[in-house]
Automatic annotation (TrEMBL):
Pfam families linked: Acetyltransf_1
Protein name from the UniProt record: N-acetyltransferase domain-containing protein
Domain of life per record: Eukaryota
Keywords of this entry: Acyltransferase, Transferase
Domain N-acetyltransferase positions: 13-162
InterPro entries for this protein: Acyl_CoA_acyltransferase (IPR016181), GNAT_dom (IPR000182), NatB_acetyltransferase_subunit (IPR051646)
Record-stated family: Belongs to the acetyltransferase family. ARD1 subfamily.
One function term, GO molecular function aspect: protein-N-terminal amino-acid acetyltransferase activity
Any single Gene Ontology cellular-component annotation: NatB complex
UniProt keyword annotation of S-adenosyl-L-methionine present: no
PANTHER family registered for this protein in UniProt: N-ALPHA-ACETYLTRANSFERASE 20
Length: 185
């Protein structure tokens, strides 16, 4: 296929740090209606504060295939890596790229930041993403009522890292929470 993409495997892909110019190059990726989009200031804030967590996957010809952005946050045993956004352009899906990007973020969270777990929020209705994250080893920790603009609930999904030997960080909560109940970073 184009850019060496073959079904079922990650093609010749290079990962690199996200740069300021990249915000103008990911239109093809962010057109997906399930991709949360943010204003430029939001992307630049992440780029400045957590550059190691903001990575782009591109083809040998320099086409953007996908990106991941995240951060380290929390206190004490709640210190963790957080996936703010993960998205892959439609033409590069189903080749293992999301797993590749998630592995990178998990490694940064574990080796550089010594976190206890990685978490992410996903729309309760997005079964495709929920199942993908489950395949990557994530489980639902809690439901957050009205997380998405007060209109849709989110699942807070987590995956324990090596530092959480007893996997206490992923024991599911029995009751849902509201966005205002979430820990401040």
């Amino acid at each position: 296929g184009e850019d060496g993409v073959k079904e079922g495997r990650v093609p010749m892909t290079s990962l690199r740090r996200f740069t300021a110019e990249d915000v103008f190059g990911f239109t093809n990726i962010n057109l997906d209606y399930l991709t949360e989009t943010y204003n430029l200031a939001f992307y630049f804030q992440y780029l400045v504060r957590w550059p190691e967590y903001f990575e782009v996957a591109e083809t040998p010809s320099g086409r953007m295939m996908g990106y991941i952005m995240g951060k380290a946050e929390g206190k004490g045993t709640n210190w963790h890596g957080h996936v703010t956004a993960l998205t892959v352009a439609p033409e590069f899906r189903r080749i293992g790229l999301a797993q590749h990007l998630m592995n990178e973020l998990e490694e940064i969270s574990e080796k550089k930041h010594n976190g206890y777990f990685v978490d992410l929020f996903v729309r309760k209705s997005n079964e495709l993403a929920i199942n993908m994250y489950k395949k990557f080893g994530y489980s639902v920790y809690r439901r957050v009522i009205g997380y998405y603009s007060g209109e849709e609930d989110a699942y807070d999904m987590r995956k324990a890292l090596a530092r959480d030997v007893d996997k206490e960080s992923i024991i599911p909560l029995k009751n849902p929470v509201y966005p205002e109940d979430l820990e401040a970073p």
